Amino acid sequence: MLVLGVESSCDETAAAVVEDGTIVYSNVVASQDELHIEYGGVVPEIASRAHVERMLPVIKQAIEQANIKPEQLDGIAVGNRPGLIGALLVGITAAKSMAWSLDIPFVAVDHVLAHLYAPTLGGQSIDYPALGLVVSGGHTALLRLTSPVEATCICKTLDDAAGEAFDKAASILELGWPGGPLIEQASREGEPVFRLPRPKKNKSESFHYSFSGLKTALLYGVKGIPKRVDGVLKYEREASELSRKEQCDWAASFQVAAVDSVINGVKYAFENDEFKSIVIGGGVTANTCLREALQSFATEHKTPLHIPDFEYCVDNGAMIAGLGNALLSQKMTNTLSTTASPKGIAS
Fold first, then answer.
1. What is the pLDDT confidence band of residue 205, given thresholds at 50, 70 and 90?
2. d(CA 79, CA 341)
3. Are residues 83 and 180 in the same domain?
4. Is the residue at 335 inside a domain?
């Protein structure tokens, strides 16, 4: 079965052609980093307009690279939830229009579940039930997967997602944007000498991710606690006053604390349930420190760990097509009245 996958949930315009859910014929991703870098984050209106401009060229390129004709497609999948509503609408409109014109099945895919399908694109076979961990710019959540298309949310972040926290940490340290790669790069030159907080929970409470306290602790550690002077809040110092060594040490300290926080959630899940494997996905899973910590945990618990290839960590159409194939195989199709939603299984 040949499936076209379309993705536009945030700031990547992506399309891919995948056969039988595992064989990737093409995977085209158009990044918008150059459009948002001056704002230090994704601007929804700019993202939506860029998707409008790039969507059809990206789909055309994906079909051409796959060396097929549109008429050979057996179905079209699109990420319709969760994400920026304006951005999602661009992708779902394009996908529905193609499905209607080609008279082929159409299926709407949960973006978070698609991230947890991504390791399968590298040929990995996953045993269920599995613990799914999504760590991205918009989501940090744990899910109990009973199959590629069936999952329940165990816990999610109460505030910032891990990727968002990395972006804000890089901004505080004046490293630039996007923050994840820049924090990791600086961390290689530093040592985690500063103690930063990890989320805690009472024994009677369920675990939830939270990164706002970590971000605030970094802010106050770097710039000092602000004081009101002549009616204006002012910090004791600026990040620009840090030496390169201090900047890198703060980056390393933040990265270790963020990774520890993610691992604490995985530990909680294993203490309260049994899993045959661990599956991770999302842009932050490209972080080497996180990968090593998860591999160490998996080895300690003698549980297979499934990590996507680096090209499938970011938002991409191949993961959408792959999960779409699983849904289409079970005849779990959608009607053309299906629309976009800002919320999904982990929202």
1. low
2. 10
3. no
4. no
